[in-house]
Amino acid sequence: MTTLSPTRPRRSGGRTHRAYSAIPGESPGSPPWRALKSLLLLVCVLLVVVPFVAIVSTSVAGSAQVTEAGGFVLWPDHPTLDSYTALLSGGLVSRAMMVSVGITVVGTALSLVSSIMLAYGLSRPGSFGHKPILMLLLMSMLFVPGVIPTYLTVKQLGMINSYWSLILPTMINAFNVIVLRSFFMSIPKELLDAARIDGASEWSILSRVVLPLSKASVGVIGLFYAVTYWNAFFNALLFMNDAAKWPMQLVLRTYVVNNASLSGGQIDAAAGAPVPPAQSLQAAILVLSIVPIVLVYPFVQRHMNKGVMIGAVKG
Amino acid sequence: MKTPLTRRGFLAAAAGTGAGLALTGCGDFEPRPARLANAKAELPAYVPYRGVPTDMPATADGVSAGHRHFPREVVAAFPDGPPAEGPGIKIMNLIFNPVPPPVDGNAMWQALNEYVGCDLGFEITPVGDYPQKFAVTLAGGDLPDAMLMLPPDQNSAATPDMLDALFEDLTPHLSGDNVRDYPFLANIPTDSWLPCVRNGGIYALPMPRPVSSGPTFTRLDLLRKKGLDPDPKTWREFFRLCKDATDPGAHQYALGDPTTTWNLLMQMMGAPNWWREENGRFTHYYETEECRQALDAGLQLTRAGVVHPDAFSVVGKFKDWFGNGQIVMHPDGPAAWNDFYTVYEPVAEGLDIGYQMPPDWDAATPAGQWQGRANFATLIVKKAPEARIKQILRAMNALAAPFGTDGYLLRKYGVRGPDHTLEGTDPILTPQGTAEVTLPTTFATDSPFTLYYPQKPEIVPGQYAFQKEAVKKLIPNPAEALYSATDAEMSKLFGLRFESLRKGVMQGRNSRGEWDDAVREWRREAGDKMRAEYELAWETRY
What we know:
By secondary structure, chain A is mainly α.
C-alpha cells in the first residue's frame, strides 16, 4: 500500500508546512526542477491532446477553413456538422457502427468464454490432452497461418460473407490464453483442494473460486479482445464481399486511405452538390469510430494496471 | 512436478513444423513463354456511336467528345426493355471513393438493376487493397462472375496462365464484327481493347480512359494577378515562370508533387513514356540521358525554392494545395479538371483553371505528351456456359451506354428526384445522389470518356482544346498492351526504390552516381530480362 512520508519542511508564503512525496525517501526537488518536470509533462500532455483536438476541430470545421489550412485546423471558426450529416445520411456508416458493436460484443464474449475454459484446462496439470493442446497453442504463436490458408479455411467452412468469419478465425489468441493460464496457476492449490473437498465440481471451482479471484486479469484480457475486434478490418476486407456488412473500421479505411471527395483523377466525375472536404469527413469518421471505445474504457481502466502486470511477471 | 512440455521438445516440434511448411512452398511453376502470352487476336470492330450530335466530336486519334449540355431528348438505350434479364451478376471491383449506400437504401442501384434486367452485386474493395483481395480470391477459387484486373505491373497475379485456366476467352463473342451484337462495347476505341488481348484471345473488357492524359493545370486567376504568362514555350521560360510565381512570404509556390513534376520535365524533353521502341529494340526511361537531365532539372527547381517545402514529405495534399493556392501549377489526370471546380470553387474565390502543355526543352528538343493508359484496368469474366456469357456481355454493354442515353444518365447521375435535379437539361446531383453514384460501375466497364461539366459548361471547350493539342504530341508506351512476366513480378519492387531515389536526387540527398548504380543493378536483376521479353512480345504482336 502506498504511504505518504514526510520530507524536509519548506517555507512558503511565510508559513511552514510539510511537503509530502508519494514515494518514501524521495524529494520533490527544487522549484526549477519541479517547473522543468511540469513543463515536460505539459509537453507530453499536449502531444496527446493537440492531435485529438485537431481531429475533433477539423471534423466540425467549414470547407473554406479546411481548404485554407490545407489540412487540419486547430479551432473551427464556424463550426458545422455537415461532415457528420454527410456520413450518417447514407445509412452505411450507422450500419457499419452497428456491425462493429455487434462483432465486438459477441466476439469478446465468445473469446472470453473459450479462452477462460482453455486457460483453466491448461492450468490444471494432467488434464486431458494437456501437452498436445499446449503445443498447438504455442505453435500458433510461432507460425501464423498466412492469408491464403486462412481464406481457404474460412471458405471451406462456408463463412465467406458471414459475420462469423470476423469472429471465429481470431476467437482464441494464444498470448491471452497464456496470460490467463499463468494467473490461474498462481491461485493457491489449497483453495481449489478445499473447494473440491466441499464437493465442488470443476465447473463450480472455475465459476465460484477461480473467476472471482481473477476479475482483473479477465477484465484486461476482455479489453484486449474488445479492442482487437473493434480495430480489425483486414478479415472483413478478405471475407466480406458485401459492403453492407462491413464493420466500421473498413468503412473508415475507405475514407482515410482513399480520398473522400476527389476521384483520384480516374472517374468521369459527375457534378453535384459540393461535399464536405476530405479531411473533415476523415476526421468525423475517426471521431465516430473512437466514441464507443472511449465510452467503455473508463469502466475497465481500473483493471488495466493489475491485469497487465500479471502478464509481465508470469511467463 | 513433471513439466508438461519441455523446452527441447517444443523447439524440435517447431523446427519440424517449419520445415514441413517450407517444403509445401516449393513448386516448379514456369510462366507461359512471352510469344504465347502475347499472341495476336482479331480485335473488335470500332463502331462509333453517333446518336448525340455535338460540335466537339470524338476523333479517331483519341480526342474525347465534348458536350456543353445534356441533350433535351434523352435516348433510350434499350427501347425493347432490359437487355440482360436472368440471374444476378457478381462483379468484384474497386473504389476510390467511400463505398455507396447498400442496395436496399440506394435508389440509383435499384434503378440500375431494373435497367439492366438483373441484380448487379458489386463486391467492392478499397483501391489500395485490391491486388491482395484479387490474389486471395483467385487462390480461394470461389470466383465472382466478373473481376476487375489491374494491369500486370500493378498486380503480379494477373498472369496469362491464370486467365487461360479460369477466365473466358471472349474472342468468339467480340472479335471483328461479332462485337456489333453489343453496340455500346463496339463504341469503345480500339486502343482500349489492345491490353485486353492475351494468349491470342480477347480475355477482358476495357475500362476506357482518354489517351490524351491530363495537362499541367494552372491557377490562371493567381498567375494573372501577378501579370505572368501562364504558357511558357521552353524550359527556360518555364523555370522563369516558376521563380516569378513563387512567393514564400505568401506561402505560394510554383509546384508541389515531385513525381508529376519529374514526369513533366521528362515530357519537356520528349523522353520515353516508360519504354521507347526503335526497330523492335526497347529502352527503358531509367536508362536514358533525358532521365538524368530531368533529375538535374528537378534538383535545380528544388534549389531555386519553387517547389513547396513540404512536397517531399507529404502524400495526397497536392490537390488541396492547388485548390487553396499554395501551388499554382499541378500536373494531374483529366478528370481532375471537373473535380477542382466541384471541390474548390465554393471556397476559392475567382478560381480559374487553365492548362499548360509541356514546354519544349529548347529549340532543338521538342516536348511530347505522355499518352495516358487507354484503360484504367480491364474486366475479366469467369468461365461459364455460352448463354451466361452472353447475358454478362449484354449487362456490360448496358454499363457502356454512352453520353446522351438514359443508361449514361442513370450511371453517372442516378434517378431524377432523389439523386439529381435538372437545371435546364443538365442533371445536378443532390447530396443523396452524390453518395449513391459512387457505385463503381465505371470500374466494371464504361463508355468512352466524355467532356461534360453541367455546373460550368463554359470550361468544356477548353478541355476539348487541350485534348486536340495533346493528341498531336502523344508519346505512347509501346509496352502498354504487352505482357512481361519479369515486369509483372519485379516492377513494384524496383518502382518503390526508384521513386525514393528520384526524390532523393531531386532534393540533393542522393547523388546522380547512386542513381546510376541503381540503374545498373536494375538492368542486371530485372531490366534486361524485361527488355528481352518485351522485344519478343513486340515481334509477336506487331
